[in-house]
Amino acid sequence: MTFEILTALAAFAFVTSITPGPNNMMLLASGANFGFARSIPHMLGIGIGFVIMVILVGAGLMQLFDAWPPSYLILKILSAAYMLWLAWKIAHSTSPEGQNTGANPISFVQAALFQWVNPKAWTMALSSITLYAPGRELSAVLWVAIVFGAINLPCVSSWTILGQKLRYLLSNPTRLTVFNWTMAALLVISLVPSLMA
Asked: Which of 140-146's residues contact partners 24+ apart within 8 Å by CB, and which partners?
């Protein structure tokens, strides 16, 4: 892979990773509700889960979807159900200092599995393989995964930091409730474009 292609891939990885989407909205809420340290498994689950997804998509998984078109509908239904569940979890989160001690941040495994029902993650994985590893050679697919692995985690972590910085504004239970319901609504809204496609 040439330097020019790597540079273009890095720019693509940065723009797609830093812009708002389901992962970043959830991390913003997690940073605000649980802080940076408790959100680390969530961030690692996104980063590692997405790298694995890119490798498997590049290894031929997208050919399976092309061969069996109903799989796209199944993916949409699973995506909608899981995102609605996560939106509910965000809406009912509370700060660690709050009275509701039953709330927990999303785990590493939940975050990694979420990549498989995250419409933005699918778009990123399919687009990156199509654009930067069109022949699907193993070396090219691994370069795409490595670049995303290096860039994605710092990008999504910045949303957690932003959420943590908002914590002092959200120390009021009413403001925290409004914030969490807003984040939950934005997560659901982010699902609409993929369901309409």
From this structure: 140/1, 140/58, 141/54, 141/55, 141/58, 141/59, 142/55, 143/1, 143/6, 143/9, 144/9, 144/54, 144/58, 145/51, 145/54, 145/55, 145/58, 146/51
Which amino acid belongs to residue 103?
A
Residue 97 scores a pLDDT above 90: no
Confidence of residue 191 (pLDDT cuts 50, 70, 90): low
Give the span between the Cα atoms of 125 and 156, in whole angstroms. Answer: 16
Range of the domain at 154: 3-196
Tokens of 157: 């972590």
When divided into structural domains, the chain yields a total of 1
Q: Mutual orientation of helices 173-196 and 119-132 as an angle, nearest 10°?
A: 50
pLDDT tens-place string over residues 141-157: 999 999 999 999 999 99
Q: Considering only CA atoms, which of 116, 97, 121 is closest in space to residue 24?
A: 121
Name the pTM for this structure: 0.79
The per-residue pLDDT of the chain, averaged, comes to 85
CB burial of 66-99 (b: ≥16 within 10 Å; e: otherwise) equals eeeeeeeeebbeebbebbeebbebbbebbbeeee
Instruction: Classify 31 as helix, strand or coil.
Output: helix
Tell me what pLDDT residue 194 has: 57
